[in-house]
Amino acid sequence: MPELRKDPVIGRWVIIATERARRPSDFVPETAKPKGAAECVFCPGNEGKTPPEVLAYRPHGGPWTLRAVPNKFPALQIEGELVPSGEGIYDRLAGVGAHEVIIETPDHAATLATLPEAAVADVFFAYRDRLVDLKKDPRFEYILIFKNHGAAAGASLEHPHSQLIATPILPKMVIEELDGAAQYFRYKERCVWCDIVRQERRDGQRIILDEGGFLALAPFAPRFPFETWVLPAAHQSSYEQIQPNEVEALARLMRRLTGRVNRVLGEPPYNYIIHTAPLREGPLQHFHWHLEFMPKLTRVAGFEWGTGFFINPTPPEAAARFLREGGD
Length: 328
Fold this sequence. Notes:
Blueprint: E1 3-6, E2 13-16, E3 55-57, E4 66-70, E5 84-87, E6 90-94, E7 98-103, H1 117-134, E8 142-149, E9 161-167, H2 172-188, H3 192-203, E10 207-211, E11 214-217, E12 228-232, H4 244-265, E13 270-275, E14 290-295, H5 302-307, H6 316-324
């Protein structure tokens, strides 16, 4: 069974995922593994090759258009109780959580940029539906929704899919973000992301898209070239608060954004991550859910790992201009 282990110096938890155990010879450089529908476990006709679905959209009782299934090789397992234990100064927990895959479409070759707008909206509806359902489990404290697109971004299968992992503790980076936002709120009595929205709208030079109540912008201090944040203009602390019309607007914006990224950058691999409030918190005045979109264009190397400083060769103002002018 997986387990969580805590670093005693900085308090960072790591997952030791025993279900994914590898020998040294198994660690080879990743390359894309193209597969046709006959081999792809996510394609229609191969439903029996995945664990039983926990969510499926079948309009009018027809074939599925989206499925969510438990990950066959989970980082954390749904079964079990949270049993803390120690080994001298070290702390560990049973690796209890949830790890699911959202199979976004039956179309093996589709992308967010090429899917119909309604299909993209279904992806973002599915995120909300799974958040609402998993929130009922009192063992879980946080849910991270993320997408790895392309082998260089960590995708082991090319069929369009996203993932979510529910954890029994708050990740360290989430705590740091919450603490920073709370400190800003104590000082100014305003949400820092709401202030970002106001300032970026006034300035305009880092705005990429602004429509339907959502903004896509190049952050002032991006870690990576063409890093983009997507935020609701109105304050919402939790993604599950999103309303149907807002899901549709978010889908339109994400479809346009990924299309522009593909045109400007030549269809790069990318990751995106949804940052939402912890599950056990009510609505928070100081936190504002948002999506971070990061094309995989540079490598993180020794200086970044050793210092936490990121070296970005593309100013965000230039990145925003390139994407604004990328057309639809």
